[in-house]
C-alpha cells in the first residue's frame, strides 16, 4: 500500500506534459465565464417568454433584452471556440504521459464542457423560439397599425371633401385643426411603423445567424461526446485497477490477520505442551529422588 502511494506521489510531481495543467486552468477559467453568460442569457429568455405571453412585444424593455441576449450568445460562442480548441489539445496528449489523477481530471473536465455546451444548445433553441414568437406578434401588430393608417387616410380624404363644402371661416378653421391632428398622428405612426419594421428585419437576421450557430454547435457537441466516450474507457480501466489494488490489499490484510491469529493459536498450544512436559519431568524427578 505504501509503495502504491509513493508511486502516485511521484506521478503527481513529475509529468512529461507540463502544459497540461496550464491548459486545464485555461479551460476552467473560460468555462466559468461561459457559464456566467449562459446563466444571464437563460434569465433574459425567461423574461422574453413572459413578455411574449403577455403580448408586450414592442416595448423598449423587449428590445433591450433582445439585444443583450444576442450579445451573450455571441460571447458564449467565442468562449466556446477557445474552450473547444483547448479540449482538443489536452485530449491529444497520449495516455502514458499522464498519471492517473490527470487522466481522471481530464475526463471530468471534458464532461463539464459537454454539459455546458448542452445547456447552451437548449438556450439557443429557446431564444430562437421566443424571438420568432415575438416577431410574429410584432408583425401582426404592425399589420393592424397599417390598417389603422389606411383608415386614417380615408379620414383625410373625407376632410378634404369637407373642405370643398366649407362655407364659413369657422368651418375652415375647424377643418384645418382636424386635418393637422390627422397629419400629426400619421407622422408619428409612420415613424414607429418604419422603426418596428427595421427591428423585425434585424431580429430575423439574428435568428438566421443563431440557427447557423446551432448547426455548428451540434458538431462540437457530437465531437465532445466521442471524446468523453473514448476517455471514459480509460478512466474506467484506471478505476478498475485502483479497485483491484484496493481489493488485493484488503485480501492481503485479511490473510495476514488470519496468519497472525493462527500463529497466536499455535503458540498457545506450544505453551500448554511445554507446561505438561515440564510437569511430567518434575514428577519423574521427584519419583527418582524418593
Give the secondary structure arrangement, pairings included.
Blueprint: H1 2-13, H2 19-54, H3 60-91, H4 100-165, H5 169-289
Helix pairs in contact: 2-3, 2-4, 3-4, 3-5, 4-5
Commentary on this structure:
With 290 residues, the chain is mainly alpha-helical. The chain has one domain (11-253): Helix Hairpins (Orthogonal Bundle), CATH 1.10.287. The protein has helices spanning 2-13, 19-54, 60-91, 100-165, 169-289. The relative contact order is 0.09.
Keywords:
single chain; 290 residues; mainly alpha; 0% strand; LAMI_0E13080g1_1; membrane; transmembrane helix; T_SNARE_dom
Known CATH architecture: Orthogonal Bundle
Number of helices: 5
Oligomer: single chain
CATH class: Mainly Alpha
Whole-angstrom Rg:
41 Å
What is the overall pLDDT average? 76
In brief:
The chain is mainly α and 290 residues long. It has helices spanning 2-13, 19-54, 60-91, 100-165, 169-289.
Amino acid at each position: 500500500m505504501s509503495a502504491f502511494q509513493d508511486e502516485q506521489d511521484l506521478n503527481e510531481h513529475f509529468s512529461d506534459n507540463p502544459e497540461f495543467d496550464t491548459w486545464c486552468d485555461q479551460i476552467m477559467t473560460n468555462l466559468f465565464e461561459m457559464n456566467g453568460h449562459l446563466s444571464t442569457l437563460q434569465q433574459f429568455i425567461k423574461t422574453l417568454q413572459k413578455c411574449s405571453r403577455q403580448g408586450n412585444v414592442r416595448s423598449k424593455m423587449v428590445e433591450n433584452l433582445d439585444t443583450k441576449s444576442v450579445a451573450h450568445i455571441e460571447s458564449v460562442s467565442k468562449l466556446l471556440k477557445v474552450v473547444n480548441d483547448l479540449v482538443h489539445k489536452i485530449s491529444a496528449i497520449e495516455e502514458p504521459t499522464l498519471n492517473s489523477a490527470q487522466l481522471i481530471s481530464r475526463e471530468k473536465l471534458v464532461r463539464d464542457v459537454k454539459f455546458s455546451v448542452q445547456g447552451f444548445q437548449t438556450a439557443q433553441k429557446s431564444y430562437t423560439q421566443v424571438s420568432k414568437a415575438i416577431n410574429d406578434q410584432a408583425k401582426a401588430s404592425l399589420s393592424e397599425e397599417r390598417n389603422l393608417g389606411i383608415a386614417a387616410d380615408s379620414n383625410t380624404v373625407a376632410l378634404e371633401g369637407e373642405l370643398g363644402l366649407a362655407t364659413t371661416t369657422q368651418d375652415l378653421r375647424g377643418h384645418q385643426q382636424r386635418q393637422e391632428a390627422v397629419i400629426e398622428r400619421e407622422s408619428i405612426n409612420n415613424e414607429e411603423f418604419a422603426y418596428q419594421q427595421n427591428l423585425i428585419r434585424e431580429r430575423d437576421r439574428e435568428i438566421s445567424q443563431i440557427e447557423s450557430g446551432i448547426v455548428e454547435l451540434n458538431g462540437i457537441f457530437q465531437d465532445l461526446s466521442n471524446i468523453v466516450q473514448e476517455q471514459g474507457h480509460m478512466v474506467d480501466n484506471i478505476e478498475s485497477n485502483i479497485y483491484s489494488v484496493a481489493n488485493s490489499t484488503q485480501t492481503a490484510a485479511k490473510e495476514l490477520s488470519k496468519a497472525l491469529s493462527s500463529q497466536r493459536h499455535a503458540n498457545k498450544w506450544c505453551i500448554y505442551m511445554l507446561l505438561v512436559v515440564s510437569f511430567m519431568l518434575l514428577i519423574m524427578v521427584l519419583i527418582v529422588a524418593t
